[in-house]
Amino acid sequence: MAWLLAALAAACAGWLFWHSRRAERIAATIERLAAGDWDARVGPLGGGRLGRLARSLDRLAEKVQSDIAQLRRSDAVRKDFTANVSHELRTPLAAIKAFAETLREGAADDAEHRMEFIAEIERNADRMTRLVDDLLTLSALDSDARPPAAEPVDLMRLAAEVTATLKPLAGRKELGLRLEPFRDIPAVRGDRGQLKQVLTNLLDNAIKFTPEKGLVRVSAACAEGRVTVAVQDTGIGIPAEDLPRIFERFYRVDKARSRELGGTGLGLAIVKHIAEAHHGGVAVESRPGEGSTFRVCLPV
Ligand SMILES: Nc1ncnc2c1ncn2[C@@H]1O[C@H](COP(=O)(O)OP(=O)(O)OP(=O)(O)O)[C@@H](O)[C@H]1O
Ligand SMILES: [Mg+2]
After folding, report:
1. How many domains does the chain divide into?
2. CATH number at residue 117
3. What residues are neighbours of ligand 2 (ion), with CB under 5 Å?
4. For the whole prediction, is pTM greater than 0.85?
5. Domain that holds residue 123
6. pLDDT at 16 over 90
């Protein structure tokens, strides 16, 4: 009998010791987490209540750690965004100031160059206006929790309007600008103004980044309840390593070239934002030296 009691007591002590070790491991992990060490984990702790608690605690730590990383990333994006805005505003502003000073210091009397300087001031002012307009568009899209208006939009008519507006721009580079007839394309529901901006931004890029005598084509197809509008060009194309980033705000493959063409790198960010707000999306295929195709798909 005595030996049975002794064995029972030893088993109880062992059981208590094992449980207290597991409880200690949990407590130690909680302390490390509380001290800000988000790498701390309890690790495998067997079954039972304590095992379940350990698993939940580890899952929680995992989730908080990934949320913190996400917050840090968005904070870095926000800081980058502010730095980019300041830089993009400062550049044309400095140019305007420099040209105005040159005029004040005597160039105003130089009939030959005066108009050139004034034209530069106007060009830089236009650039700032475009940037501010794009920023306002993005900020309105960011802050507007409501879905965009859902009026029926005839995409063929919209594309015809946009191509007509941009025809002179293409003409200056002797580019062919072809609008393929949209056959059997149903109307989509959406915000006409925003969808017009999508087509304008894509066509503006296609024209800008296609060398003289190239071709820009707009077409549409419908399948599985989605309309896809494609803007295709025979332009300079986009290197594969840049493709994943071109929809980011301010991202440009060749900053100097884009800036020379008056761009700030917000056009595609706006396109993506609008397409997603319409429950659609945008995709790109491109080969450097051969051309690019941007496809916007929208639910019917
Ligand atoms: N059709 C295209 N062909 C080649 N590169 C393109 C094309 N469209 C976009 N890109 C590249 O993607 C970048 C981002 O395009 P995005 O429209 O956002 O900016 P942007 O045209 O330079 O300036 P913005 O649109 O603000 O005037 C461009 O700078 C260019 O490098
Ligand atoms: Mg653009």
Report:
1. 3
2. 1.10.287.130
3. 205, 267
4. no
5. 82-143
6. no
